[in-house]
Design goal:
Helix content of chain B: 25-40%
Radius of gyration of chain B: 19 Å
Largest sheet of chain A: 7 strands, mixed
Strand content of chain A: 25-35%
Radius of gyration of chain A: 27 Å
Number of strands of chain A: 30
Oligomer: heterodimer
Order of helices and strands of chain B: EHEHEEEHHHHHHEEHEEEEEEEHH
Distance between the termini of chain A: 68 Å
Shape of chain B: globular
Structural class of chain B: alpha+beta
């Protein structure tokens, strides 16, 4: 039988999703009570008084809770992820304790922060009543920029975090020399984020029998959510099940813990009712975590021939009012600045700084695009200073086949030494350049340039540690139907897990794809799990499911031996696509026959009754996969842009991505991941930025102001995926979810500079048209 | 993002709509295609007491020529303005303007009158109507029909001469000569214009060259009759319209220059608009 892994089988979720038969969170609300929030209109203020009397008297209102009341039912939320202690020791990583109330108690820290929750029979009435909650604020001094936050005597955003530095680290190797050639820069990546098509949402149900709550949340990380909420609530794990429905995009914004999830659990438990909240876009733009918003001040020390001798970088991340992943985003932003280059010495320091703005989290790339932008842009500047082409300076520094695996001389945030386990990074650059040279740029100019436009080409390279641990759980079960159910802690928010994990399982089980169904992640199915983020699902859930499926085959053989004895009781039993067989005999047993036998046996044991167990698994296996450390990917990307020098507006016409990845489980899905990342890089490079006025008021509060790239803005792409199987896991896979986005900002900025003939050196995103405009 | 409580009424005839408007008072709003009003309702920026739905008034969803003048009904959708042969033939700049409004879904719902009444400073149809010196016909139960030149219809951003009990019924476009051009500068396809221009270059030197710019800062009209003919007219227009108030000044100038270029390229295919 043809193996499924490595082929682009039709995506199994697509018929359901394309027919509108998907079941997203808002599709499941039904007649639940709905809640809405009173959100703070002030960026920094104390709450003098909350008067809910008029709201409580409003039609359809069930209850109103303010922060003080709520704080009696649930404790604060705490950060999800802290780096490994070995990393902390190697980098001096320090973090301030963050304790975040789901509903503000006594003071607000950003516009959009929940101040009270209103529960009503429908959303319209809840919003009407929310308007009638009277809140008296007294403005407090706030900090709205990193400079404000770090100023002497700045008001602390949170108690216990005087100075507003929430995390800091230093990653260094050797002594960075003073010369001979030094180039410096300051690079900024604007505040933006994933902004998925489906906003967030939660439904919580209370089960009176078990006195437990079932939370359905549009999330990438139900297990993290369960653990964090239980901690805040003081509930045992048995009191809370968390599952996810179809999820319409996450990109990291939903790999986070949110106060609304905590509120839903409390309301369901105390009201003993099904309650729901579906975030609207206005809420989403101010209350779902933002990302990026980072400034790097860096320095490259090079030889006259362009070879890098050392690199220093001091970066600051504006994390807003909190960030539950501050360990990850600061560590990623330090580690990934070095790129696929030989950097003999480096000294990288970073800080995460609190401000009175919307909280932040990781967004696709999570610190890497910013670090890449800083290094790649500075390399372009160095090339210009030294009279080299941007390609040539990269050629002189990129790590080639003979040097890999390459020990960087630093520690990853999982505590392991960083070793680039790739194939040939130089080859990626050469192929990318060859792809650009193969394009007929004259024809492109003739056919696609409009009045006033000029063409420009830019390059950028990156490396990425993918497949972050510490573990993932896979579970495979044989059902009475003879089919299989596959589950893991990693759940799809559009990436196609229902297809790829089924491919992995079906190959191990030697069954057709159709025999395998993949469930969404659910703490009620696998008690443990990590989730889908950090380009980790294929590299972690993949091997976990493969091992669980292999374990199920062994389990099946034991059952055969128990049921049929004799020669089945040997190690000689084999499995092929026709079933289990013994080489010395022509008898075979199919999975279907085994399922039938086990189901009959179970029915007999239950005295003929199938009640309660009809669909329950007959045998199942769970496996916890623990990777040794991350496995690395790299790539060389090129952007070809058209710049209108009269308006300063940029269009990306073509994009080339040559990436080194692992074995592809599904080549089309891999391609789709890269393309989606590139599309989001176009957004970040040209359009997307959450803006605030000097008093912390958000200015980008609708999608008229926060500009997402549309189909007309996303370029035609040429993608090459160079397969170098990873030795880090038995499937040989590496992560691919973020590779499209990481170098995109830098490549597009570089292309814009090329289009101005070197008149500009774009040092921030989104690219500012007024800088790119030719003075007239 | 749910609208505040309001009364919803649907008019089946023009007369009924005018009656409802007269009776519902100051805070009533007409609902046509809803492409601007519904988002404002959802954000609770607009909180009308009554919403009078005129979306089904077939009598205002038509267009035609009367005595050599083009009449376009209030409820004609943008995609019809963009594609209808009568408009593309007689007022191509109006069709071109409509093609620049939002995305296909918006153009299939949004209406001519809705766009004019909303009076967005970036309104493309407003600009084309002003360029063509069109007339807006408005009607109320108390005052009957009155005619307002498009160039006087808008008082400022989101503000028009419409009284609370008045509704737009028709846009009347006179025949005109010369070549027209349209150009819009926006961040993304379908976005509100940062700057845009509609221009008309005359066939004969005796007539003026006209340009209307729009975008941040609103609509502006300039008209020049330079001694040396249309070529210098374009430069003079651009200079006239350059606005020194800030970053969008140079963009307006570019928009006019490009609109002039487009008008020239249209060459022999001269419309009446």
């Amino acid at each position: 039988m043809r193996r499924l892994v490595g082929t682009s089988v039709a995506r199994r979720e697509d018929p359901r999703l394309l027919r509108g038969e998907g079941a997203f969170l808002a599709d499941l609300v039904g007649d639940a009570l709905q809640f809405a929030f009173v959100r703070s209109p002030r960026a920094s203020a104390s709450i003098v008084r909350v008067d809910a009397a008029k709201a409580l008297a409003s039609p359809g209102v069930v209850t109103v809770l303010d922060g003080r009341t709520f704080a009696r039912m649930a404790g604060p939320l705490l950060p999800i992820y802290l780096p490994d202690p070995r990393f902390a020791e190697a980098t001096g990583f320090q973090t301030a304790p963050l304790r975040v109330d789901a509903i503000a108690v006594d003071r607000v820290r950003y516009v959009g922060e929940p101040v009270a929750v209103v529960v009503a029979t429908d959303r319209y009435l809840a919003e009407d009543a929310a308007e009638r909650v009277e809140v008296e604020y007294r403005d407090l001094p706030g900090v709205y920029t990193v400079a404000d936050a770090l100023a002497e005597g700045a008001p602390p955003v949170r108690p216990g975090c005087e100075g507003n530095v929430a995390a800091s680290l230093r990653l260094a190797k050797g002594t960075v020399p003073e010369g001979p050639v030094v180039v410096e820069g300051t690079y900024r990546v604007g505040r933006h984020s994933g902004v998925p098509l489906e906003t967030r949402g939660v439904i919580a149900d209370f089960d009176i029998e078990s006195m437990s709550v079932h939370l359905i949340t549009s999330s990438q990380i139900p297990h993290h959510v369960r653990t964090a909420l239980c901690k805040a609530l003081g509930w045992p794990r048995s009191d809370l099940r968390v599952s996810v429905p179809d999820v319409g995009g996450g990109f990291g914004t939903k790999a986070n813990i949110y106060g609304e999830e905590l509120v839903a659990c409390v309301l369901a438990r105390y009201l003993r009712r099904r309650v729901a909240w579906v975030e609207d876009r206005a809420e989403h733009l101010v209350a779902t975590a933002h990302s990026r918003d980072r400034r790097h001040s860096n320095r490259l020390v090079l030889n006259y021939d362009g070879r890098i001798l050392g690199y220093t970088d001091d970066f600051v991340v504006d994390i807003g009012a909190h960030n539950f992943w501050l360990g990850g985003v600061t560590a990623n932003g330090a580690i990934h600045g070095l790129g696929p280059y030989r950097v003999p010495s480096f000294d990288i320091t970073g800080r995460a700084v609190l401000t009175n703005k919307t909280p932040t989290t990781q967004y696709r790339g999570a610190g890497r695009p910013e670090a890449c932008f800083a290094m790649e842009r500075l390399l372009d500047r160095a090339a210009s200073v030294l009279g080299l082409s941007p390609v040539e300076i990269r050629r002189r520094n990129v790590i080639g086949a003979g040097e890999l695996p390459y020990r960087v001389g630093a520690t990853y945030h999982d505590g392991q030494p960083i070793v680039y386990d790739g194939g040939d990074y130089r080859e990626l650059l050469d192929r990318c350049v060859a792809e650009v040279e193969r394009m007929d740029l004259d024809a492109l100019s003739r056919e696609e340039l409009r009045d006033g436009e000029r063409l420009g080409t830019g390059y950028a390279m990156f490396t990425e540690g993918t497949g972050l641990g510490p573990f993932e759980v896979g579970r495979v079960a044989l059902l009475p139907s003879g089919g299989f159910e596959v589950s893991s802690g990693a759940s799809s928010s559009g990436q196609g897990h229902e297809t790829t994990l089924a491919q992995v399982a079906a190959d191990e089980l030697r069954v057709p794809l159709e025999a395998v169904e993949v469930t969404h992640a659910d703490t009620g199915i696998t008690g443990e799990g990590i989730g889908s983020y950090a380009s980790r699902s294929a590299a972690n859930a993949g091997p976990a499911v493969a091992a669980a499926a292999a374990g199920l085959v062994d389990e099946a053989k034991r059952e055969l031996a128990r049921l049929y004895g004799d020669h089945w009781r040997t190690d000689e039993v084999r499995l092929n696509e026709f079933g289990f067989y013994h080489p010395d005999s022509d008898t075979k047993v199919t999975w279907q026959e085994l399922a039938l036998a086990l189901a009959e046996e179970r029915q007999d044991a239950a005295g003929g009754s199938t009640a309660g167990s009809a669909g329950a698994p007959l045998i199942e296996r769970e496996h916890t996969w623990r990777p040794r450390t991350v496995t690395w990917t790299a790539g060389a990307h090129a952007a070809v842009v058209a710049l209108d020098e009269d308006t300063g507006l940029v269009r990306v016409l073509r994009y080339i991505a040559v990436d080194e990845g692992g074995r592809s489980l599904h080549p089309s899905i891999v391609k789709g991941q890269v393309m989606g990342g590139v599309a989001q890089a176009v957004g970040g490079a040209l359009f997307e930025r959450f803006e605030f006025d000097p008093s912390g008021q958000p200015l980008t509060t609708t999608l008229m102001d926060y500009l997402l790239p549309s189909t007309t803005d996303v370029p035609r792409m040429r993608l090459a995926h160079v397969e170098v199987p990873s030795g880090m896991n038995p499937l040989g896979v590496r992560g691919v979810g973020e590779s499209g986005i990481i170098p995109g900002y830098a490549a597009i900025a570089s292309a814009a500079d090329d289009a101005t003939g070197g008149r500009t050196h774009m040092d921030g995103t989104p690219l500012d048209p007024s800088v790119l405009r030719r003075p007239r | 993002m749910k609208p505040a409580e309001l009364a919803y009424l649907r008019a089946d005839t023009r007369a009924e709509a005018l009656d409802m408007l007269a009776e519902a008072g100051q805070d009533a709003r007409l609902l046509a295609g809803g492409q601007s009003l519904v988002p404002m309702l959802n954000l609770r920026i607009a909180r009308p007491s009554h919403l009078i739905d005129i979306g089904r008034l077939a009598e205002l969803n038509r267009l035609g020529m009367v005595d050599g003048e083009l009449y376009i009904g209030a409820l004609v959708r943008h995609h019809v303005v963009a594609e209808h042969p009568l408009i593309t033939r007689t007022a191509p700049v109006l069709a071109e303007a409509a093609r620049h409004i939002g995305h296909p879904a918006i153009r299939h719902r949004g209406t001519l009158a809705g766009s004019l009444a909303h009076a967005d400073p970036s309104g493309e149809l407003q600009a084309a109507a002003m360029l063509l010196d069109a007339t807006v016909l408005v009607e109320s139960r108390s005052a009957g029909t009155r005619e307002v030149p498009a160039r006087e219809f808008v008082l400022g951003p989101y503000e028009t001469v419409l009284e609370a009990d008045e509704m737009i019924t028709w846009l009347r476009v006179p025949p005109g000569g010369g070549q027209t051009g349209f150009y819009e500068i926006a961040r993304r396809t379908g976005d509100f214009a940062l700057a845009g221009a509609a221009v008309r270059l005359p066939d004969r030197d005796a007539e003026p060259a006209v340009a209307v710019t729009f975008g941040a800062g609103g609509h502006r009209v300039a008209s020049v009759r330079p001694p040396d003919g249309p070529d210098t007219a374009a430069g003079t227009l651009a200079a006239l319209l350059q606005d020194d108030e800030g970053e969008h000044g140079p963009l307006r100038r570019t928009a006019v220059e490009r609109a002039v270029l487009a008008a020239r390229r249209r060459g022999g295919a001269r419309g009446h608009g």
